[in-house]
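User: Predict the full complex structure for these chains.
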Amino acid sequence: MKTIPTEQQILAWFQSLSNWGRWGADDERGTLNLITPAKRLQAASLVREGLVISCGRTIGYEPTVDNVVPARHFMLSSGEGEPAVSVGRTGAADAFLLQPHGVSMTHLDAPSHSHVRSDPSQPWTLYNGKSARAITTAQGATVGSIELAGGGIVSRGVLLDVPRVRGVPWLEGSDPIFPEDLEAAEAAEGVRVEAGDMLFARTGFPRRRAERGPRPPSEGIPALQAACLPWLRERDVAVIGADTGNDVMPAQYPSIGLPVHGVGMGAIGLWILDNPDYEELAETCARLNRWEFQVVIAPLKLSNATSSPVNPLAML
Amino acid sequence: MKTIPTEQQILAWFQSLSNWGRWGADDERGTLNLITPAKRLQAASLVREGLVISCGRTIGYEPTVDNVVPARHFMLSSGEGEPAVSVGRTGAADAFLLQPHGVSMTHLDAPSHSHVRSDPSQPWTLYNGKSARAITTAQGATVGSIELAGGGIVSRGVLLDVPRVRGVPWLEGSDPIFPEDLEAAEAAEGVRVEAGDMLFARTGFPRRRAERGPRPPSEGIPALQAACLPWLRERDVAVIGADTGNDVMPAQYPSIGLPVHGVGMGAIGLWILDNPDYEELAETCARLNRWEFQVVIAPLKLSNATSSPVNPLAML
Amino acid sequence: MKTIPTEQQILAWFQSLSNWGRWGADDERGTLNLITPAKRLQAASLVREGLVISCGRTIGYEPTVDNVVPARHFMLSSGEGEPAVSVGRTGAADAFLLQPHGVSMTHLDAPSHSHVRSDPSQPWTLYNGKSARAITTAQGATVGSIELAGGGIVSRGVLLDVPRVRGVPWLEGSDPIFPEDLEAAEAAEGVRVEAGDMLFARTGFPRRRAERGPRPPSEGIPALQAACLPWLRERDVAVIGADTGNDVMPAQYPSIGLPVHGVGMGAIGLWILDNPDYEELAETCARLNRWEFQVVIAPLKLSNATSSPVNPLAML
Amino acid sequence: MKTIPTEQQILAWFQSLSNWGRWGADDERGTLNLITPAKRLQAASLVREGLVISCGRTIGYEPTVDNVVPARHFMLSSGEGEPAVSVGRTGAADAFLLQPHGVSMTHLDAPSHSHVRSDPSQPWTLYNGKSARAITTAQGATVGSIELAGGGIVSRGVLLDVPRVRGVPWLEGSDPIFPEDLEAAEAAEGVRVEAGDMLFARTGFPRRRAERGPRPPSEGIPALQAACLPWLRERDVAVIGADTGNDVMPAQYPSIGLPVHGVGMGAIGLWILDNPDYEELAETCARLNRWEFQVVIAPLKLSNATSSPVNPLAML
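Assistant: Here is the predicted structure of the four-chain assembly.
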């Protein structure tokens, strides 16, 4: 029943699932175009309890087996020194070195993060045909920067809790989510993902980490099977966010790279939220028996950037 | 009419305006306690057009006269190289060095950012008496970290457009906002700041920069006069954000440091949003003739940190 | 025969081995004062083959079990992009994040790196009584900066090859070097360490790493037993450099910190070279049967710094 | 008399001055091959006073008009906090962000720093034909890394003090040094630059900065006129170091980039020392009336790097 697509099928999807040109020849915003004022009004109407729940992970600074290049934190002043004033106010300040695409930081990918082609004689491009060569070492992402989402992303969010439907606490490493899983969760939750929604697909892997400890990525990370791509395109999802890196690890299609990031970002123009944490949200949804909510993602307005760290918030 | 407080008055406010103990002896969240579920429901109800407007500044990487220590951007991979695959997906990634308390990055201050005392024989403390010595070089902010707001801040926002009331495009350098300005704006806009609100106090200085170019901070930055502090306490504002550094520059009370950051954060437990940009929001509010909206601030969950860069979003 | 000193003996050495005041009340350069022009002439006279050998380790950027916080390398431009000119010259550039006191970077410690006291009622001080509180988060090392050696260190170097004398390829983890080992090496090599010399004490641990791979520091690192301290003081060594971190790991005296760094730097004013690599040098010395040479250490002139990465060179 | 070469002449030098193949088809070390053991013995013999003089600039962390992207310094621990031990030893540590090719840091360029071609139909290459595309964002300089000089550079140095011969304290901005200046200095000093030497060409610009203060690079920086290139090749200089960026600023040949860095590094395989400071050295040479000495340059063994900060030392 659950069909695993071949590499050739995935390569064909670069054309068949494409949104290139759908919002104009110059469009860079892709599926963000699906989020209308009406959608935002619908999202706001889902705030009924006055709750707000973070879906961002804590950013620490110590290396772990699942994050060997963590963020770095530097204090520029502290509370240990002698202030310049004897009374009143003094203070402390800090600086951060952040690498958002790291394996454990919650971040939003910018279009410039994924470069695709299905024909080796063609140049590498971003969504809608922008040249990948415009992402340079010297200038950064001169096209497809995270600034495209700098105005903020606000829409209806839907949590599809796959392990809950399967009756397990979490998906184990490399266990993929298929479209059938998404539809089973829709049925169980009485909800349907619609155009412009943010789809939060839970694997529960952050809970596994909390209970069992970190482990090397080489031991497997669950996420979306490539077979979900036609489904995401058909439903016109605006933002996809499985609570891992969205592509199953180890890479299932090493000779063509990561298919969800490839077909998703490059062909569909889909925005991808990597490494969120839905544990508190899932508990709240289960308690309220309601799986839809207002979501706000506020990327930093980083110039020429392929990513931003984010702290996605769900309001319900 | 507009009374400039003396240093002694400001020092006395550390006691008379204090919220220490108001939410328990161990409280670290201060005025965030004022944001109730009911407040968040009110905020959501203000979304009537389905609009979302960013109040964050763009983060660039070039030094300017008003920001000599800008963020740094490093590309870890780009679109210029030879990918490991011949078709499918490859990509680019980056890293950032961010110093949020810099003079031009939109950021939220954590309680650990301000250390206060009014008696030179006493130790320096944060809000509610936490020891400032717990903010160390080696460990960072072991108390008062930005993680206290990691769950997200969602409330009603009110824009008080001071230059609009005064009939000027922006306030010039060192021109302070007094409580009388705030009340004049309330009257002109037909709105009233209430408990748990986020107060967005517009100076228009970002517009000045856009039209006239950057200039050294030593030439003056408008913000809130310390006289606003009793007003902010009386109204029980949860988050204050003038669209500069909130304290007038050059420092008006150099021998006691920055009074809004001092009395505000240290005594009142007030949360401060520094360096937002309200230009697009102000135009929209004027067009809709509506000055209240839902606001979402989503600080990164940075461990032991005195700050986070943020991109505050207003929905209306 | 090999006597392990007690904590109390080591604490007593802070006075009995002290060089405080020896070169004046304001001196900050400690044992560098022992390197005279005559000493430098002697060093130059040891260049007889015209050879130069590096004693620095390679600086990589990947985390390893023995270096979880490696240096970071960022390309600012590369050879992959499109140059601004069509012929002539273009280029590439980079940036580095370096943490010299890390467990594997060859570096020279500045006096500001070690803060000592033997009486808990006294303040912490550097060598010659400078206050440790002058090393601040905000300003760095306002005393005892690596700039004190910015003029360069050039002297006679002596390699004492301890594993060679013991007939082993390297010392295993936590195996300490005693004064008896140093004297046995002197005897075997026909050389004597004299005032103003740089003493290169070989454990061979870098060879172990090359042959057996990295392992966690918790499994042990060989270095100098504290018993060497009176010997180093008596011989008036100017720079000590065992080819690890100079203090045995795990710490042998955890309640008083690292004794070689403590008594050595704090009382004697000794300069410490951490993490050099003597493998090529040791082979050359054995081949030439000559264990003395000219050494040049050229610390970067980093302002207010507790350290500099270095690449020590031996000429013979 | 002093002839300014045309762009076409400079482009022709890429062939006529080339050392490609001279030390083998695979050679990457270029003019470092000219430094023989005999040369190093000669260098050591020049140490007659036992003096050592640094030719490195101090590295500060504050932006200036001539260095808008300075190094950054972060304290990881300081002397302000509470140590883990009550007596014995504790300490402070730091980290540095360094961008060696910046306008004022003394650094050695690696071959990977300069990419050249004189025919627009040919690929960009380093010295000896290595592909410039091997310097990638993701991996850094996989050829031509500074590690090529990681073994240390030790040779005879010669200071040619051009402003002394001209009777001025320093050369003003954009004032170029011609071969005639070098030969006039040789004559005045009674010295001759020979194969394998390091040529220290003084403009005195650091003295100008010390006396007159920093100024924007756009106002001009003196250095070597391209006309010196045949002379450098004829004399077989191993390392050239004018006390600025070696190429006159503003760029004299903007359509072909920097000629000294281009023809010098790319064709001749010459090693370039940028931004040294010869003020103390020049005074000492004048006092001793001796303009030759031993020089040691000890680049950090930075993997895959286009540069290293250095502190060159002259011994005499």
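The two ends of chain B are 35 Å apart (CA to CA).
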